[in-house]
Amino acid sequence: MQQTPRTEFAQALKAIATERGLDPEVIIGTIKQAIVAAYKRDREDYGQEISEEFEYDAVIDPITGETKVFEFAADKPTQRKDVTPPGFGRIAAQTAKQVIHQKIREAEKGAVIVEYTDRIGTLVSGMVLRFDGSNVRVDIGRSVEAILPSDERVPNERLNLNQRLSFLLKEITDEEHGSQIILSRADPNFVAKLFGREVPEIASNAVEVKAISRDAGVRTKMAVFSNQPGVDPVGSCVGQKGVRVQAVTNELGGERVDIISWTDNQEDLVKAALAPVDVLAIKLDKKNQEAKVTVPEDQLSIAIGKDGQNVRLAGKLTGYKIDVIGDPKANKPVEVVAPIEENVNEVSVEEPAEPVADSE
After folding, report:
1. Per residue in 200-238, pLDDT tens?
2. Domains of the chain by range and CATH?
3. Which ranges of the chain does DSSP label H, i.e. alpha helix?
């Protein structure tokens, strides 16, 4: 079997490909572009104009590294003329060096972006590098910097340089200076993914997170459902002595998590979402997605929560606009309307009510 000659160029090409995790053909392609750019620049330096009627291509021997430049008319690509100047190899190498490194970095970054595109919606580990105004730059490995925008940060969370945390890889955006990896710690799905990491039953799809609503940094409500007979969805998420939910709340800096069982019975779902309040009566308007709930007068403030936090999260979780009223038998019944808000990431300074199943 004939072996490929181990020339200096071939070994260097293999080393770069291995180190950068790139296809050798990609590197050869970037070098060709650099060589053509170097040739045009070399001609311009000597006052020779480059005609727009012609195009140029470089051919590189992958074994020896010998390079030739060819000129051809756009309408006759097969009729090529060798226009390689004498001694051009040395000039081209010096001129193209910077361009080659730049192209390789771009190709490497492109390969990394493709890799992380497949990981959108998953958790990544990263270290806080620096603060860029209200945004945070995060090292997520392989010399890749991602950004944690201000609106994806938990409002009351204090971050420190070199601190290692978990993040939700939320999206990859195309910007003027290239693609940007966007992280989040405020997205409700971040909490769901943390439970997926801590709870084997979720990872195996035996337990499913059906719905989640969040007031980032303060409180989260999550409804879970068992796809497997005999598996308690709430108990699986809480864990023995609360060890699983505690691991999640530790990552969240003490944020409370209410875990309830999902049910297709919408009345029962609304009742569970308002727990631990005793619901005396409930009337659903399924057409308009509205629910009128009656609770004991002395539990009205708990059902609503300060600034409507509890009822707002319950509404977001169930999809209903929830009106909570006190027991009509009370002397002064009170009615409070708490519409669902699109943005549930507003911080409430209320001491949250005891959840159904949380870190406590």
Report:
1. 999 999 999 999 999 999 999 999 999 999 999 999 999
2. 8-117 (3.30.1480.10), 123-186 (2.40.50.140), 194-262 (3.30.300.20), 266-353 (3.30.300.20)
3. 8-20, 24-45, 88-117, 188-198, 200-203, 233-238, 243-251, 266-273, 300-304, 309-318
Q: How confident is the model at residue 93 (pLDDT cuts 50, 70, 90)?
A: low
Other beta carbons within 10 angstroms of residue 36's beta carbon come to 19
The candidate with the shortest Cα–Cα distance to 269, out of 235, 303, 318, is: 318
Q: Calculate the alpha carbon distances from 225 to 71, 187, 205, 307 in Å.
A: 67, 21, 10, 29
Peptide bond into 276 cis (omega under 30): yes
What pLDDT, on a 0 to 100 scale, did the predictor assign at position 65?
74
Number of neighbours of residue 339 by Cβ within 10 angstroms: 12
**Is 37:88 a contact under the CB 8 Å cutoff?**
no
58 residue type, one letter: A
How many residues does the structure list for the chain? 360
Sign of the torsion formed by the C-alpha atoms of 152, 154, 155 and 158? negative
Number of helices and strands (H, E) in the chain?
10, 15
Locate tokens 């998420």: which residue? Answer: 237
pTM for the whole thing? 0.67
Each residue's pLDDT tens digit, 147-184: 999 999 999 899 999 999 999 999 998 876 678 899 99
Band the pLDDT of 13: cuts 50, 70, 90: confident
